[in-house]
Each structure stands twice: as C-alpha cells, then as structure tokens.
Amino acid sequence: MPLTVAAFYQFVALPDFRALRAPLQAFCAARGIKGSILLAEEGINATVAGSAEAIAGLIDELRQGTLFSGRLDNLELKYSQAAAMPFQRLKVRLKREIVTLGDPTADPTRQVGTYVSAADWNALIASPDTVVLDTRNAFEVAMGTFEGAIDPGLTSFGQFKDFVATALDPGRHKRIAMFCTGGIRCEKASALLLARGFSEVYHLKGGILRYLEDVPEAESRWRGGCFVFDERVALGHGLQVQAAAAIQDNAEGGSDEQL
C-alpha cells in the first residue's frame, strides 16, 4: 500500500509551542509517522508521511484534539502519495519562525495578501500589469516555474526582504502575484510587502502543489517539476513523482525579465 504524505502549515499564535513538542513527537512516533514538523510562536509547518490511517489520525488530532485546543482549524493541507517512506526519521523542532524571513514587520497572523485559488491563478498572471514573483530559492526555480515568472535569485528565503528593498517599488509595481511550493513562503512574503507599502498583493493559495493537483495539464502555465524536500525530489501534475528527464524536457518557460 502506498504511504500518505501530508504537507501542512498554519500561521497562528502558539505561545506554548515549546510545551507542544514532546506530546506531538510522542503522538507521531507511536503511529510510525516520519518527517519534519516545525513549531514556533507564529505557528506550525510540516511535511510528514505514514499510513493513511496514521496520517488521518494526526490531522484529526491537530484540528480537533486536545493538544492544540482547536487552534489549528484553518490548516493549509495537501496530500500526496509515496511508494516508499520518503523520510528517514521523525523530527519535531522548535524554531523562531516556521519559515525564516528575519523581518519582524512581516506578521502573517496580523495581515496577509489576497489568496488566489488555483482555478483563478492563470487569469491573474496572464495580465500584463501583474508582476509575477517566484519566492523560492534559485535551485528550485531552475527545476520548474510558471511562464513569465521572475526569479529573484535567492539562495535562502531570508534574502527576499533585500530583493524587495532593491528591486520593487510600491509606486511602480502596483500588482504583485507570488507563489511558492505549498503557500507558506509567499504568504509570509505578502505580509512583508503589505508592511512596506504595497497595496495590491496576491499569493497562490496552497502553492504550486495545489495548482498541480487542481489544474488540468492541458490548461497549465507551469513548466518543469516542483522540487519537494524529501526523497521524491520533484512532483508534476497530479502530484506524480517526475523523472529527471521529464523535468528537463519541460523546464523552459521561466523569465529573465528585469523589474
């Protein structure tokens, strides 16, 4: 039987995040779940794998159980499959941020940009007055991206704030649409842009993974593979594991356009 892979996050105030680590680790370990879970005062971010029953039990506990007391009722959650366990062990880590940007003004628990569904994404990025930004690292962008998207050339997400300071101008760049793997980086990036005076900020809800799951390949503006941080390496439409040759054949379509 294939294993279920669950990728999820939620920005939510968790002042007791340190106390949550041990019971969450014990819950997962008892059910054979492996993967990575990050806990911080600003929320939770994870990709884990296990049997369908084990993963269903974990999600039920997160949403409705006593551990988080109903605070994770708005998880951004995506499922995929793996033929073999894609993780070697279980890690539950305490962090300052669940996705590291290093700018305290970027607070997704206070404000974020406008969510755009996968069904509406093509129309938004096709508009000539929309600046489309890939908020992922450069090596991820090289594997695949949306047609016309701009690569900020990041080696780490923390550099995104510097890119904004030097390459973007609220007066010139009126409409910005951003995307990332699962939605978490572009959600935090949207909070940063709003804090810096950009007024029309959009981000792809559920990220590339949701888009690949929901949008038929014949209608897709995605080119290449979507890098994932486990042993599957890259996923394509329908969240199917992609072979390296297929990624290379379909990777054209990014942009060297300057802002």
The CATH architecture of the largest domain is 3-Layer(aba) Sandwich
State the CATH class of the largest domain.
Alpha Beta
Report how far apart the termini are.
48 Å
The CATH homologous superfamily of the largest domain is termed Rhodanese-like domain
Low-pLDDT segments = 243-259
Structurally, the number of domains stands at 2
Discrete helix count:
8
Largest sheet properties = 5 strands, mixed
Shape call: globular
What are the defining features of this structure?
Alpha-Beta Plaits; 25% strand; globular; disordered C terminus; four-stranded parallel β-sheet; TrhO; 259 residues; 2 domains; alpha/beta; Oxidized Rhodanese, domain 1; five-stranded mixed β-sheet; oxidoreductase activity, acting on paired donors, with incorporation or reduction of molecular oxygen; transferase
3D structure, described in words:
With 259 residues, this protein is α/β, with parallel strands linked by helices. The protein has 2 domains: 3-94, Alpha-Beta Plaits (2-Layer Sandwich), CATH 3.30.70; 114-253, Rhodanese-like domain (Oxidized Rhodanese, domain 1, 3-Layer(aba) Sandwich). 29% of the residues lie in helices and 25% in strands. It has 8 helices and 13 strands. It has helices at residues 17-30, 52-64, 118-126, 138-143, 160-167, 184-195, 207-214, 244-249, and strands at 3-11, 34-40, 43-50, 76-82, 90-94, 114-116, 130-134, 144-146, 175-179, 200-204, 222-224, 226-227, 234-235. A 5-stranded mixed β-sheet has the order 4-1-3-2-5. It has a 4-stranded parallel β-sheet with strand order 6-10-9-7. β12 and β13 (234-235) form a beta hairpin. The N and C termini lie far apart (48 Å). The relative contact order is 0.16. The model is unreliable at 243-259 (pLDDT under 50).
